[in-house]
Automatic annotation (TrEMBL):
Gene3D superfamilies referenced in this protein's UniProt entry, alphabetically: MetI-like
Source taxon at top rank: Bacteria
Protein name: Sulfate transport system permease protein CysW
Summary of the function given for this chain in its UniProt record: Part of the ABC transporter complex CysAWTP (TC 3.A.1.6.1) involved in sulfate/thiosulfate import. Probably responsible for the translocation of the substrate across the membrane.
Leader sequence segment: none
GO cellular component, one term: plasma membrane
Organism whose genome encodes this protein: Pseudomonas laurylsulfativorans
Keywords of this entry: Cell inner membrane, Cell membrane, Membrane, Sulfate transport, Transmembrane, Transmembrane helix, Transport
Membrane topology of this protein: Multi-pass membrane protein
Domain ABC transmembrane type-1 residues, every copy: 69-272
GO molecular function, one term: ABC-type sulfate transporter activity
Length: 289
């Protein structure tokens, strides 16, 4: 057998081995995905529908569930815009200016990623609770933060504060300041420069960050559980309502409400994927130019 034949046979064997390894790895990935992601989701939905659609919709439209849904939406509608303002402001400062403490600001933005949400909730209780640092003053002025909507919003803001900023900072740093400087030379003021130059360049990253922030806000459990007081129909969000139903052995209702959370999460996931695809296409077109 010639050397060329031996080399060709070795190459074919290596190619077959590589193809086999690829198939094994892909199959293993799908198996893990099915066991640890798809199967639990299927169980949640199937258990929610265990007693039929009537029981499913009864659990979802029960007054306490609707109250939990309403409170969840309110917390999202308040916390996400505030985090949007903070994220854009922080990204603008970090990417456009050099100042003392810049690295510290970037580090502090990531703080909620490293601090347990339960600890964050406990901090708010120690600050604003009846026996907390500001508790007596708040009681004297008839202001309630803990075990009320303001505490839930504060806890939600804390755990979601990095998402918009962390998405925008690298994007704005990559774009630089040339376009803003050109707009300034052409006579644009600060707001004109921001709305007509900066926002069009970051809008898809902005949407992506808002989607991530919304998903995290809707599913937050730990910090909200500490500051809410678990007052049924008053301070329970959807995740807390699921916990209460499950602890009461009302499993069908718990899984039905969990299915509602799952539907909302899937909708947000589709928005996330859509915005991510737009960002990737824009980056690819920018790289080609």
């Amino acid at each position: 057998m010639s050397q060329s034949s031996i080399a060709a046979a070795s190459s074919n064997a290596a190619r077959r081995g590589s193809a086999t390894s690829r198939r094994i790895l892909i199959g293993l990935g799908w198996l893990i995905f099915a066991l640890f992601l798809l199967l639990p989701l299927f169980i949640v939905v199937s258990q929610g529908l265990k007693l039929g659609l009537g029981a499913f919709f009864t659990a979802i439209f029960e007054p306490d569930a609707l109250s939990a849904l309403k409170l969840t939406v309110i917390a999202v509608l308040i916390s996400v815009p505030l985090n949007l303002v903070f994220g854009v402001s922080a990204a603008w400062c970090v990417s456009k200016y050099s100042f003392r403490g810049k690295s510290m600001l970037v580090t502090l933005i990531d703080l909620p990623f490293s601090v347990s949400p339960v600890i964050a909730g406990l901090v708010y209780v120690l600050m604003f609770g009846a026996q907390g640092l500001f508790g007596p003053w708040l009681q004297d002025h008839d202001i309630q933060i803990v075990f009320a909507l303001p505490g839930i919003v504060l806890a939600t803001i804390f755990v979601t504060v990095p998402f918009v900023a962390r998405e925008l900072i690298p994007l704005m740093q990559e774009q630089g300041t040339q376009e803003e400087e050109a707009a300034r030379l052409l006579g644009a003021n600060g707001w004109q420069m921001f709305w007509h130059v900066t926002v069009p360049n970051i809008k898809w990253g902005l949407i992506y960050g808002v989607v991530l922030c919304t998903a995290r806000a809707m599913g937050e459990f730990g910090a909200v559980s500490v500051v809410s007081g678990h007052i049924r129909g008053v301070t329970n969000t959807l995740p807390l309502h699921v916990e209460i139903l499950y602890n009461e052995y009302n499993h069908v209702a718990a899984f039905a409400v969990a299915s509602l959370l799952l539907i909302l999460a899937l909708f947000i996931l589709l928005l996330k994927q859509w915005s991510e695809n737009r960002i990737n296409r824009l980056r690819a077109s920018a790289a080609e130019e």
